[in-house]
Amino acid sequence: MSRLQLGIGALLLMLSVVLAWQVQGWRYGRKLAQQAQAQADAEAARLLAERGQRQALEQQLEESETRHFKELADVQQSQARLRDRLATADLRLSVLVERDAVCSAVPATAAAGGVDHATVHARLEPAHARRIIAITDEGDRGLIALRACQDYVRASRP
């Protein structure tokens, strides 16, 4: 073998090593790019799923808020009608009084010629009736708010 053949052989060997090195670099780069793309696709799918869950939760909360607002408005309207009926004396609140209770303000009148087995009721003063209605109104609003909070916690729990 001559020196020229040895030089050409060495040059070809070096070129093949460089070419193999380059091809391996391309393969490795492509493999890294595929892994990065797979990770990006998985992250995008996860974010899309989270967005869907968040939108569903927001929709649930909006429906719940609307329902509780309507319920609160209905209760307030009912309380207002009740207060108006009390104010116009269209409605009088009364309490049940025991038959044996000693109460000078409540006359126990029996029907003539018979024994009265009916229950005895005492009418409340309008001011007291209004206070009772106000207390029940506050209680109703508190219960509705509590129910709304409980629904919110239930909906936001995983």
Textual characterization of the structure:
The protein is mostly helical and 158 residues long. The chain has one domain (3-103, 119-156). Helix content is 73%, strand content 5%. It has 2 helices and 2 strands, in the order H-E-E-H. The protein has helices at 3-87, 126-156; strands spanning 94-97, 120-123. The protein has a two-stranded antiparallel sheet with strand order 1-2. Helix 1 (3-87) packs antiparallel against helix 2. The longest helix is centred in the first third of the chain and has 85 residues, at 3-87.
What attributes characterize this protein structure?
rod-shaped, mainly alpha, two-stranded antiparallel ribbon, 158 residues
* Count of individual domains: 1
Beta-sheet strand percentage?
A: 5-15%
Structural class by secondary-structure content: mainly alpha
Q: How many runs of DSSP E, i.e. beta strands?
A: 2
Distance between the termini: 79 Å
Give the integer mean of the pLDDT values: 83
Q: Return residue spans where pLDDT drops below 50 for at least 5 consecutive residues.
A: 110-114
- Tell me the Rg in angstroms: 43 Å
How are the strands of the biggest sheet laid out side by side?
A: 1-2
Shape field: rod-shaped
Largest beta-sheet characterization: 2 strands, antiparallel
Provide the fold topology.
Elements: H1 3-87, E1 94-97, E2 120-123, H2 126-156
Antiparallel strand pairs: 1-2
Helix pairs in contact: 1-2
Summarize the structure.
The chain is mainly α. Helix content is 73%, strand content 5%. Residues 110-114 have low confidence and may be disordered.
